[in-house]
Amino acid sequence: MVSVKVLLFAIFRERYGVKEATLDFDGTLDGFLKALGERISPKLVEDIYDPEGKHIKNNLIVMVNGRNVKDIKGELRFNDGDTVAIFPPVAGG
Question: What is the pLDDT of residues 39-69, one digit of tens each?
């Protein structure tokens, strides 16, 4: 069992009324998503995860200990004490 801190930013923070939460789960992406849905909201899981492609949605920035999950090769695993930051889609121009 691992324990990670989750930080929500911008619209996610506003929408779910949560700035920070601690999740306890088995260290897998599936375990993370299940714990996130139970602790904060199943809708948040829908907002960040593509179940058909089985990955975090491409238009988001999700970082584990400051490293973008898109840069992590192979299966995403979490370790005790990790910090996960979730940012909504960013637009600019």
Answer: 999 999 999 999 888 888 988 999 999 999 8
9-13, 32-36, 50-54: the lowest-pLDDT one: 50-54
Spell out the alpha helix ranges (H) of 1-93: 10-16, 29-39, 42-48
Contacts of 49 (CB under 8 A, 6+ apart): 33, 55, 56, 57
4, 82 Cβ separation under 8 angstroms: yes
Both tokens of 1, joined, read: 């069992």
Task: State pTM to two decimals.
Answer: 0.91
CATH domain 2-87 topology: Ubiquitin-like (UB roll) (3.10.20)
